[in-house]
Amino acid sequence: KNQVEQSPQSLIILEGKNCTLQCNYTVSPFSNLRWYKQDTGRGPVSLTIMTFSENTKSNGRYTATLDADTKQSSLHITASQLSDSASYICVVRAEKKSSGDKLTFGTGTRLAVRP
Amino acid sequence: DAGITQSPRHKVTETGTPVTLRCHQTENHRYMYWYRQDPGHGLRLIHYSYGVKDTDKGEVSDGYSVSRSKTEDFLLTLESATSSQTSVYFCAISVGAGTDTQYFGPGTRLTVL
Fold this sequence. Notes:
The structure holds 2 protein chains of 2 kinds.
Chain A: E1 4-7, E2 10-14, E3 19-25, E4 30-38, E5 45-51, E6 56-59, E7 62-67, E8 72-77, E9 86-94, E10 103-105, E11 109-114
Parallel strand pairs in A: 2-11
Antiparallel strand pairs in A: 1-3, 3-8, 4-5, 4-9, 6-7, 7-8, 9-10, 9-11
Chain B: E1 4-7, E2 10-13, E3 19-25, E4 31-37, E5 44-51, E6 54-57, E7 64-70, E8 73-78, E9 87-94, E10 103-104, E11 108-112
Parallel strand pairs in B: 2-11
Antiparallel strand pairs in B: 1-3, 3-8, 4-5, 4-9, 5-6, 7-8, 9-10, 9-11
């Protein structure tokens, strides 16, 4: 069964500090991995997408890494801001020949950035 | 929210009543999806559509039906709502399948008493 596990479930950090969120997956065959940011009361918004051949991708203060061999990904947030307070969701897509995506969503890490 | 609107945004209903949620997009994207989000679970796919009148089931489709008579509208119907269908429902769109990004709507919070 395809699964995506994220850790920690929740995290509190002080403004300006860095943090790293983890994602482990057992999705096979692997196609790509995305990180989404979900603000409270809003829909998720894509931050990064990584395919099998990519091991690092940045989007501003967000840097995602992928180790396809160990099936692990991380999202590193640098110099956190209050606006980074949100849930961060790891989503892994399996290769599927028929129409429609086959996505497996993690339950997310809830990040709170305190002043 | 990538030109996606959902209506209503909030709804409280009673067990056994029918409920229809609407997703409207302005981008004419081919693919549309309905998900539900519950505490302790990741987003779970209910149904999706790959064109007008073309729909298919997701992993949690029992108790739900969908219709897409126009490119821009994707309706999710709970024929007889149950308390287990209390959830936040998200609509999403994508230009294509595969590696294309899914863009999510703002969500509908449904409470079934």
